[in-house]
Amino acid sequence: MSAHKKTLEEKIADRVRMLASDKPGEVVAAANALKLILASAGTDMNGLAHAIENLGKNAEVSKDQMRKVWDAAVQHTENRLHGTDDFRSTDGKPTWQSVALFCQRNKYKLRPQTH
After folding, report:
1. pTM for the complete prediction?
2. Dihedrals φ, ψ of 79, to 5°?
3. Chain segment 28-73, per-residue pLDDT in tens
4. CA distance 103 to 107
5. What backbone torsions phi and psi does residue 8 show, to the nearest 5 degrees?
6. Using CA atoms, how far apart are residues 115 and 90, in angstroms rounded to an integer?
7. Cα distance between residue 29 and residue 79, in whole Å
8. How confident is the model at residue 114 (pLDDT cuts 50, 70, 90)?
9. What are the tens digits of pLDDT across the range 93-109?
10. Cα–Cα distance between 115 and 110 in angstroms, integer?
11. What's the burial of 56, exposed, middle or buried (CB within 10 Å: 0-12/13-18/19+)?
């Protein structure tokens, strides 16, 4: 059984909860960890605050923004559903990266004269 890998949202929520600690050291550590998590996601505390302020608002989203979100969601879903070795593109063929990785991982199975 594999350990559950936390999503970005779960990581952020954990650190926000830690901000409520009664121990000052834990609060500082939580704030620093939150900054690192947000930076790894390409944003910062201002981006988090902006997202919180706009929760539930019916803001107009441009078609370009919707396309970016859609493409990112599709890529994320494909990455979660498929391992590197079993991914197929929309035409049913494996990507060249998958083939190269398969060859690299299985080169020991080849006859020595084919190396």
Report:
1. 0.48
2. -65, -35
3. 999 999 999 999 989 999 999 998 888 877 667 788 888 888 888 8
4. 6
5. -55, -45
6. 31
7. 31
8. low
9. 777 887 787 777 777 77
10. 7
11. exposed
**b/e per residue, 76-105, with b = 16+ CB within 10 A?**
eeeeeeeeeeeeeeeeeebeeebeeeeeee
The Cα 85–Cα 99 span in angstroms is 7
Residue among 89, 86, 85 at smallest CA distance from 103? 85
Q: Tell me if residue 88 falls in helix, strand or coil.
A: strand
> Please, which residues bridge with residue 88 across strands?
94
**Token code pair at residue 43:** 């944003």
Q: Give CA–CA dist 99/110, Å, rounded.
A: 15
Closest alpha carbon to 17 in 40, 9, 41: 9
Matching residue, tokens 């990785």? 101
